[in-house]
Amino acid sequence: MKKIISQIKRLGLSVKKEFIIFGIINFLLIAGSICLGIFEKKGVFFAFGPGFAVVFSILYLSRYGTLINKINSDNLIEFSELFGFFRIYIKNGYNVYNSLKEISYFANEKLKELLTKLLAEIDSDKSVQPFINFSSNFDEIIVEELMISIYQMIDEGEQSNYLSQFELIFDKFSEALTQKELKKKDSKLGTLSSAPLIGSSFLIIVITVGIIGLIGDIINGI
Fold this sequence. Notes:
mainly alpha
């Protein structure tokens, strides 16, 4: 539960509101099945509510992790695009500070905020710490390696060997990100292909439960 609460806060959502919605929907599912069972006078309907509530709970609570993964993935893609531009600015003679400032103009709202914070920290702290702080917003450890290599370009006057080091790490990062996205697309295709099978299985279960209930009614009627 602590993990779920942490994920909700990380997404900037209200913990109280999310749990209220969660509770109301579960209550309606269970209450609806009870009412349907009483109205239809069939005990099988009493089992539907808890069953649907369990499925709903799993889907509802797991979506926070899915959303965080998507945000992280989107931020990594944005990071890759922006620092591709950063490399171009460096090669065109811009220093590190001005290159970071220039790419911030093209960033989305989240990364613009992070880059602005990074630049402000660089103004007051000439150590590597601002770059470490920036990289902590990403789950991939290679981002930290990239930011440290950028700091080294500042510390050593943007010498060509440090630029080469940055390019080597950046190319490795870009390649790994591309492979990760390809695997993700393959996974989505696999999920889509299995969806009809899952739907069919669920339909079979519902029909089976219905038949069992009907047989029970016939036996009780006899």
